[in-house]
What we know:
This protein has two helices and two strands. It has helices at 18-28, 60-64; strands at 34-38, 51-55.
Amino acid sequence: MNNQSNVFKxxxxxNLTISExxxxxxxxxxxxxxxxxxEFGDGISNNENSFQRLNxxxxxxxxxxxxx
Length: 68
């Protein structure tokens, strides 16, 4: 399913700007743009090992151009 290197966790996100959150998401996505977001704790699933798989179509230039 996933390896722990491309799992986005919401650790201390309240201390980050929107741009910083997007940069963190980009840095955690793999070379194919795959990023996993845990479902547990958001009312979607009661299984701590349940994830939503995102297939992101972006590159570093997209993140750099982000103007939020």
